[in-house]
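Quick one:
INPUT:
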């Protein structure tokens, strides 16, 4: 009897040992769901690319391939007297290291055209574009537009991914958006947020401001990258941030794609952006100015100065007039007026809505070419 129990105990011990080895190394062989064991339910492999509800993975996937990193370098500028021993004695050795800059861009054409910010490539002697698939190419500057802070580059590579241009006029506050770029040079990064505001201006960033504001994280290196909607369509070119620390604080600004398309077309076809100009000094209409000029309207831009023999003067616009409309588009502030006039074709007649005291007038004007901004020299 004792021998039987000994054989039985040894057999049970061996079987238990084998069982524990199996559930440790090959749990799927056993299929046990006992007490104290957690049954893990794994999602099936996503072979069809169907995103979970609320995911923006498809938008990121569609747009990311067309967003590039831009590396620029600027040769050091030598001081004319740097080899003079007395100059070096008083001023020391000058910094002659090559300056480098980092930014992003968006491929908008299969022929290699890339949209980016002007400030990303300003003054660069060498521009290198790095695609998301690790291909590299030297880029040529097709044209720049400092007034809108946009520039167009071109690269010569085959089978380029191209982003789909959206319609920024349809954007609404609260719409989800993604910001795609290369912040701090860490590699392509996608951040998400919403449209926080539209038509932001008076920021002192560009001459023509009509920014999309977003809380999607935008950091140094994101400039020139893409702001896309939930379909992966381009809605803006990330341009600037509001920050006290130099990093993201949830207030970023993007140039609408509607503006970018106009600049792109002009730079590619003409090499420059030609804007309309009428020669006035505008101011936002305030109750005090309205009372001073006896104007019977509360909306528009009051003209406080008119250039002699300029397009506005020839059309009959006077100081004290309030411009309320440009080519059927309402004017609510100086930014609206600048944008509306800039969109006019020089030499082509257009209609301007004017309020003169208590009279509403429609004047015909032939805009000229907007003068290039003068550079301040020391």
């Amino acid at each position: 009897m004792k021998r039987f129990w000994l054989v039985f105990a040894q057999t049970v011990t061996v079987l238990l040992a084998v069982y524990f080895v199996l559930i440790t190394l090959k749990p799927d062989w056993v299929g046990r769901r006992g007490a104290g064991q957690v049954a893990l339910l794994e999602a099936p492999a996503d072979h069809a690319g169907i995103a979970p509800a609320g995911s923006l993975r498809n938008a990121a996937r569609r747009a990311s391939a067309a967003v590039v990193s831009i590396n620029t370098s600027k040769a050091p500028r030598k001081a004319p007297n740097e080899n003079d021993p007395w100059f070096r004695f008083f001023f020391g050795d000058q910094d002659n290291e090559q300056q480098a800059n980092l930014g992003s861009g968006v491929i908008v054409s299969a022929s290699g055209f890339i949209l980016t910010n002007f400030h990303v490539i300003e003054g660069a002697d060498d521009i290198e574009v790095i695609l998301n698939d690790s291909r590299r190419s030297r880029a040529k500057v097709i044209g720049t537009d400092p007034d809108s802070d946009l520039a167009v580059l071109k690269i010569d590579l085959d089978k380029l991914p191209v982003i789909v241009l959206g319609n920024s006029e349809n954007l609404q506050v609260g719409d989800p958006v993604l910001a795609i770029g290369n912040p701090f040079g860490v590699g392509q990064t996608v951040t998400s947020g919403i449209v926080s505001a539209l038509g932001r201006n008076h920021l002192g960033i560009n001459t023509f401001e009509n920014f999309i504001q977003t809380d999607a994280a935008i950091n140094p290196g994101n400039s020139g990258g893409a702001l896309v909607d939930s379909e992966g369509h381009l809605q803006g070119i990330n341009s600037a941030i509001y920050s006290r620390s130099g990093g993201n604080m949830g207030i970023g600004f993007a140039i609408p794609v509607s503006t970018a398309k106009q600049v792109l077309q002009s730079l590619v076809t003409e090499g420059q952006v030609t804007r309309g100009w009428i020669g006035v000094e505008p101011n936002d209409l305030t109750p005090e100015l309205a009372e001073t000029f006896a104007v019977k309207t509360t909306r528009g831009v009051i003209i406080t100065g008119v250039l002699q023999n300029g397009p506005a003067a020839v059309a009959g616009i006077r100081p004290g007039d309030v411009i309320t409309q440009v080519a059927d588009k309402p004017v609510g502030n100086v930014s609206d007026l600048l944008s509306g006039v800039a969109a006019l074709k020089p030499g082509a007649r257009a209609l301007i809505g004017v309020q003169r005291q208590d009279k509403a007038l429609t004047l015909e004007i032939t805009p000229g070419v907007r003068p290039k901004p003068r550079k301040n020299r020391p």
